[in-house]
């Protein structure tokens, strides 16, 4: 007659309040990166085309030969690139269509764009204090590059409608802010990097990107300056080195203080409010579950 071996005692019950986080082992896989808007083949092609046209529109004073017809029409050429607005709309539309954007992602895009548009007028005209930039950095970081480009472009368009800032500069604002926000989504460590290191990285990126945004907008408006009014304006037919020196002097004289204020404001708000805003955005994206298909139960469900 065989004797049954004694069974091992049952493990003690888990203490109250213990959740799933207590059961995570070091080998558990980290949560996947959320992509509310995915950049597919069509949207990537549209983005590449729009970026190429935008770069040509911005850097043509340095690329065109001195004797070219473009230099002879320096005051008219920037207006020709207002068609960027159509291309930008095509990029956003392609990204949204390929992502099969659901109502939750549309709501998130609308709320963040409206918040950014409302933040932009705060401090306008005062040393470049523009709080919307830190929100764009944090949103792009959490929601990814595709959502970031769409958010940056839509926010600038909504802000222009809100403040009456519609003009030939608007496509360049939308494109540069789209680049700005998309770049935050391309920073390293989107899943594992957290805490102080992540905040310092976002603050450093916001500082540099604030100056880059100002430089892009200077390129968009520099050629409008009458060459007879200043010796730092674009000189049609002058060598590239001369125009480059004029442009650097133009940036220092007209926008350096403003760009510095924008950069410092972005760093301060990122370090002060970044932890709370990042937690709120990540909690909202987890609850929204963008990549989960919405289903409806039948009458007997």
Automatic annotation (TrEMBL):
Keyword Transmembrane helix in annotation: yes
Domain of life: Bacteria
Keyword entries, A-Z: Membrane, Transmembrane, Transmembrane helix
Transmembrane segments: 44-65, 77-96, 102-122, 142-163, 169-187, 199-220, 232-253, 260-278
Residue ranges with Pro residues bias: 1-16
InterPro entries: ECF_substrate-spec_UCP037395
Residue ranges of the region described as Disordered: 1-26
Listed name of the protein: ECF transporter S component
Organism whose genome encodes this protein: Streptomyces cyanogenus
